[in-house]
Amino acid sequence: MTFVEEMQKLTGSELVIIMVDGRGYRGVLDGVDAEVAVLTSVYETQNQEVDERGFMFWRKVLHSRVFLRVPMIMRVWPWDIDAQPAARPKGKK
Questions:
Q1: What is the mean predicted confidence (pLDDT) over 53-66?
Q2: What's residue 58's pLDDT?
Q3: What is the CATH number of the domain that holds 57?
Q4: Cβ contacts of residue 83 below 8 Å, gap of 6+?
Q5: Residue 66: its pLDDT value, please?
Q6: Distances (CA, A) of 87 to 24, 53, 62, 90, 92
Q7: Is 67 within a domain?
Q8: Is residue 30 classed exposed, middle or buried when 0-12, 13-18 and 19+ CB atoms within 10 A define those classes?
Q9: Gap between the Cα atoms of 25 and 39, Å rounded
């Protein structure tokens, strides 16, 4: 199985994609082939925008679709972080 075949299985899923230049994109995978991956509902971050706890600062992209060159993709993860705020430990205010 190839990288593109694995990516095609994720079509319709929200993903985090890190490019070789360190930029990160988070969005819904609309489609992918050997050359281009298309994301919609996209947020973007730069590799310098990571705080001391490792959190990235995401900015909404104003364009409806973003096209990423597949050979420039370094890492891909499903975005499985719940949108709910983290619960505080009992006894903390």
A1: 82
A2: 83
A3: 2.30.30.100
A4: none
A5: 95
A6: 26, 17, 31, 9, 10
A7: yes
A8: middle
A9: 9
Instruction: Answer for the pair 91, 58: CB distance below 8 angstroms, yes or no.
Output: no
Residue with tokens 């983290």: 86
Alpha carbon distance 82, 2 (integer Å): 29
Q: 32 or 63, which is more confident? A: 32
Q: Which domain holds residue 34?
A: 3-78
pLDDT class of 83 with cuts at 50, 70, 90 = low
Helices within 1-93 (DSSP H only): 3-9
Q: Helix, strand or coil for residue 93?
A: coil
How many other C-beta atoms are found inside a 10 Å radius of the C-beta of residue 66? 18
